[in-house]
């Protein structure tokens, strides 16, 4: 029994403001059930393996300081990386923006005599929409990570940094493979092991014959010119090892000063992302190696808004992100809306501070997609103070006329003790009919702008000022 | 190739107006007046408590991630059970070539030939007990990366002196510029409902033989 495939992204408008998109997502019970199940599972795993390390907090402190150092030393580290990678036989390219990175990548694919590539899961290539650019150029990019494959076959968009198909359950995935894969085994069940086996068979020939691969990188080591890819399935190893040409698109913030820094990040990343002590496979490569892996190795260092983020003293800590997605999994907002509602490749708390900074003026609603509960900050392995940046961005973002007028009026009243006292008295008397209920559910306009999504507590019978005065007497 | 200093947009190299110079200039402008970088504290652990049985811990962690563990060189034969043709790096010691299988040395085996063997037998560069990680760095007795990737069954031999408790102890024993693969259990995915399933594109069976 199989049902029609309706990509979640087609239902949730990507360009709509967050409150509107979130409302659509909240009305999808299957989506919410899938998300609650998956994020709940991963939260438990992460908490267990993080607790195994008695120096977890020290590791976080070190990671945060290393990343802050990288940001301050970015120009020198980027040049150092370039020097060592080039000496090891890689060609290093620089891309100011998405368009430039896509053009370089497409040109390199053609120069390699290919019209298709296999891809390792990469947030950077999603961010620059490399697949779409390739398609427009008559090139085909095949996603090889299982979740990315699911999303690509469903013609959907990813909804999570680590598990892009988190919004699908096993039955939905079975249906997607059955209808879209072309070579899905007959009688495919929804057993995850059977689904993984189907993906293996589907991609194996492609891996063994691919000429060009495109990857991102989790870390770029300045001291050695090495790149690091962290993965689970072995699709990464296949892409990084088998083709003749390898193109890696790497955000400039991925730099680390030294190889030894991996002793910090490779403890934090796997435990924070998949809740494992170590991910099954980590690949490290430095340029090209005779007789071992790709001969033609390219690295595209990508800016695409990162230097704008770097300029903001408070906001630049968003560049410390190692894309583990622990903040998504603990976020009460993300857990209910999923990733599509954010309308950006980086969803959840990290997306709410990264998207508006990477694309200024386009995602000013996202810093409000949070209750500021701080759970994201607590789990962040590199200690990004996400609530601090959220509040900072709220202060910097535009404020509509009504809000400005209300705040102006409040300021005028609150800075004049006599007026303030009168206002409190008026509120107390005015709210008397609702005293027994305890809250006001609906105010007339313009108060309705507040009460449409929140209850307003009834002012207490006695104000603190009155109580204090009485007590003094 | 790095000698190309001019050419189409995005060609590697610098020069006035190049992407490289512009990005570096943007970075420097962005950092003007930035507060200095904090000192990096290094208070974290770099070794396990003295007296920890690292071999027992490694075994525990390997088994937890569904690898099969064997002890002693004689067990290589058990680990290879069922394999008729076994690919090996050319420098694999003769005393590891045990059992009735045919050992095929990798002297430039094609992808099809690698895909045709039943297993691969190699050594490693280091192992980390706390995370159950086996590390390869293309050094002695390890071969190239494709050798340990294409065959569906990897048997890896770990000497006692290659086992470290902590990641920080093992890293200095790797060649940072050599291609590395860190392996923690067989290929796996958690992409379906966050449930871990072993066996996707990498070797689906991992046997670790510890030489005490």
From TrEMBL, chain A:
KW 4Fe-4S (keyword) present: yes
Name recorded for this polypeptide: Iron-sulfur cluster-binding protein
InterPro entries named in the record: 4Fe4S_Fe-S-bd, FTHF_cligase-like_sf, Helical_ferredxn, LUD_dom, LutB/LldF, LutB_C, NagB/RpiA_transferase-like
One of the GO BP terms on file: lactate metabolic process
Domain named 4Fe-4S ferredoxin-type: residues: 318-384
Record key words, sorted: 4Fe-4S, Electron transport, Iron, Iron-sulfur, Metal-binding, Repeat, Transport
Keyword Iron: yes
GO molecular function, one term: 4 iron, 4 sulfur cluster binding
Residues covered by the Lactate utilization protein B C-terminal domain: 395-472
SUPFAM superfamilies named among the record's database cross-references: alpha-helical ferredoxin, NagB/RpiA/CoA transferase-like
Domain LUD, first and last residues per copy: 80-302
Automatic annotation (TrEMBL), chain B:
Superkingdom of this protein's organism: Bacteria
Pfam family, one: LUD_dom
Annotated region (Disordered), positions in chain: 1-20
InterPro entries (alphabetical): FTHF_cligase-like_sf, LUD_dom, NagB/RpiA_transferase-like
Gene3D superfamilies: NagB/RpiA/CoA transferase-like
Domain LUD, chain residue ranges per copy: 103-211
Protein name: Lactate utilization protein C
